[in-house]
Amino acid sequence: MNGILNISKPSGWTSHDVVQKVRNISREKKVGHTGTLDPLATGVLVLCVGKATRIARYLEAGVKEYSAEMQLGVTTDTLDADGAIIETRQYRAPDREAIEGVFRSFTGEILQHPPVYSALKVAGVPSYRLARQGKAKPLKARPATVYRIDFTGFADPFLRFTVRCAKGLYVRSLCADIGERLGMGAHLTRLVRTCSGRFRLEQAITLEALAHRAAEGRLESALIPIDEALADFPAVAIGAPEAGRVKNGSQVPTPLSFPPGGDGPLRVHDQAGRLLALARVRGGMLKPELVF
Predict the structure, then answer these.
(1) 38 tagged catalytic
(2) Lower CB count within 10 Å: N or C terminus of the chain?
(3) How far apart are CA 92 and CA 107, in angstroms?
(4) Tell me: the pLDDT tens digits for 18-63?
(5) Quick one: DSSP state of residue 254?
(6) Over the chain, what is the mean pLDDT?
(7) Are 191 and 182 spatial neighbours (Cβ–Cβ below 8 Å)?
(8) Distance between alpha carbon 255 and the CA centroid of its chain, in Å?
(9) Helices 96-105 and 171-182, interaxial angle, to 10°?
(10) In whole angstroms, what is the distance from residue 167 CA to residue 146 CA?
């Protein structure tokens, strides 16, 4: 089995739990995810199965979209509702203008401190393990990109919003930072990933539905082919002689019909439309980066 699964992750499961469940259902050992979701979170979790694990790094770089809810006035050690309460503050409920002004201040290129309860490693040890031992230290601020934040509702103390961002943003940290900017503290109470790259929640399959297909011998019908999963990357077709060289990992001249511009990955097809490789244009040549 080779392909991509767009799984609708249930709340209370770690991303690794989902991977292990899919391994059991599919009886395929090579299964990996493309971007962790915390146990509290639900929504799109993209899994690579079999040979498709080779394209995980290309898929995890896609734009992410989330629907989130935060509770004002309460901070926790994990920055979400799964953690222990650190502080409860008295505050005056903000109006929409104040909220949207703070949202604008977190749009664009920002710096954020990842949660100490995260899988980021410190001297080879996951930070969450150190946090559980009381040994965690604040993690160094990292750049993150927020394309937009949209207000969707406020019923005090719960504030709802959607966010569109690049890989690497911690929505837990974003909620905590927004709460501090509002002057009242906050923590994440609900998170749904609605989109990861080209994979959307409305097309995702539940683990129960996946198990049902497996029981009926239709598991492969849930798999998205590798070429389709990479369809956001431009495609270029090459002739038979060049195809033979690309299969061996050799670079070939870029077809004259292919428009120049951009240095991102390209899908390289043979004349029959079969996916041969992912490549980049370097000095007028197609240089294979990943050969299928």
Answers:
(1) yes
(2) N
(3) 24
(4) 999 999 999 999 999 998 899 999 999 999 999 999 999 999 999 9
(5) P
(6) 94
(7) no
(8) 33
(9) 130
(10) 10
